[in-house]
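REQUEST FORM: STRUCTURE PREDICTION
Request ID: SP-0412
Submitted by: Lab K.M.
Chain count: 1
Length (residues): 229
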Amino acid sequence: MSMNYPASWLQSASLGEKMASDIRLQIIAGTIKPGTILSENQIALEFGTSRSPVREALKKLSNEGLIELKRMGAVVLGLKQKDIEELRDVRFLIENFAVKRLSMRDSEELVKKLNYIIDKMEMAAKHKDAVDFAYQDLTFHETFIVEVDHNRIGHMWQGIRDVVLTALLVATEKRFTYYSEEIGHLINRHRFIVEALASKNREHIEKAIRAHYEDTRKTVSKISDETTE
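STATUS: Completed
RESULT:
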């Protein structure tokens, strides 16, 4: 599956960040395989730029654990199943904390905001727009992190955000291709989280979030089986 990183997601990005986004997508989508050696000179040639933004891009990808910088070049590590599971674990811990903390506040306006985002997801699904669906999906979950206004949680999230968004884009494209009939169920899972937040029941909240991430785990596993057969 040939994919391009959405230009609309990169409007305020530096050249190095744009290059990192493109390479990240190719790594996570499997276009660039683990073990591949990335050369600064070759990347600069392909992008028609100097080596300075290439170094910026490679440093970012190294910090994300997608490549390892060595003397002969950058060795691609890829995103293994263990990495995907660990990202999901971190997302669950962050989101579960954030939603429970937010449930102790007046959440009426937040509930409206979240339902509006879900409406956008439904519209994207209706128009078979996987790119916008993925972006709205991330925006939904990121809203909890922004609203809880917790500096350490925010810092943890920023450390994984770009990888999560890219993995979400790849998974959503595949979901729309292979399992489009499950999109409605996914949207409902998001509504259940909002209902749990509104209920202010901490047990209900954790159950709704855990169910969502368990569904995600099963779908990612199915997609992986489908695309590797």
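NOTES: The chain has two domains: 10-76, 81-228.
Reviewed by: T.R.
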